[in-house]
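BUG: 3D viewer hangs when loading the predicted structure for this chain

Environment: internal workstation, default settings.
Expected: structure renders.
Actual: progress bar stalls at 90%.

Input used:
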Amino acid sequence: METEAGSTPDFKTLVSRFRTRGDLISVQPHGSGHINDTFKVTVDSVNPPVHYLLQRMNHRIFKDPPAVMDNIVRVTHHIRNKLSDSGCADVTRHVLWVVMTRDGLGCHCDPQGNWWRMYRFVEGARTYDKVEHVGQAFEAARAFARFQFMVADLPAPRLHETIPHFHDTPMRVRALMEAVRRDSFNRAGEVKAEIEFVERRAALCGRLLERHARGEIPERITHNDTKINNVMLDEKTGEGVCVVDLDTVMPGLALYDFGDLIRSATASAPEDEPDCGKIRMRIDVFEALVRGYLSEAGFLNTAEREELVFSARLITLMIGMRFLTDYLQGDTYFKITRPRHNFDRCRGQFKLVQSMEDQTDAMERLVADSLTE
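Structure tokens produced before the viewer hung:
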């Protein structure tokens, strides 16, 4: 069982660095994530045995693992305390539970310089890589809104900004235009239509940040990777029980989370579908997401509610710009499996933006209806 780092870990020693009880029984690779190496650990503590998730954090992407874990520990402890105070029957299923090291830290650095962390395993729940029915969309959106609500009153200090300018859309526009100017791989000529697509919308890219600067849209604590596979759904009831993958939890705008949820869950085809004719924004899924999100998002102010539909278009456009920028720069950031892969991704995102623009009136009506329920 080699990790991405290319070596076989000493799991017995690693597990012993964390506050687990009992003898190690087994370690098995777990999940399909591409960022961190994840293992399901079984410990012979009681009957039945106890399960944990052990992860090697990818410190090439998250360059300050202790800061990442400081954010996660603070957020999860805060939610755990609120759940306990509310009388939640099984807190360990409704929030990630960080298993601290025996030194009282959130992560451990091994002699090879790899950073490891451990969570309690969430039993009786699973994730889905795509929306199979609208009930899943409703539950996932409700879970993300509940997460935002639970951390809205997290005490100071401010969380670490582990990826600076992550959703700075005007900066993404500037980066794209610089890549066009340089045209290091002579690709700008073949993407003129896509460049013009961005140019026609560039003036709107700073809209949310401008409203934030005027004090109309507040900074909040946000998840920043609100794909449906980052919510665990109960295997029996389908309820959204636990938000996972908290590496990008940091200060941001609530609208970024909502927008990315709409972007990632409503598309009718995979993100890299080369045939753009297959791509549209599914209005039935959008309706379920809106209803689920707003059922728990009473904390939103008027300005945030006004920008819900726009945020979906903005975040989708931004992701498309990032794909296009990477294509022009020689595919150095996003992993590709074929020529023009990032170009296909870009075109797919822009087609989704266009579909949202075509359905804006219907989307706005659904938001208005949900706000009056």
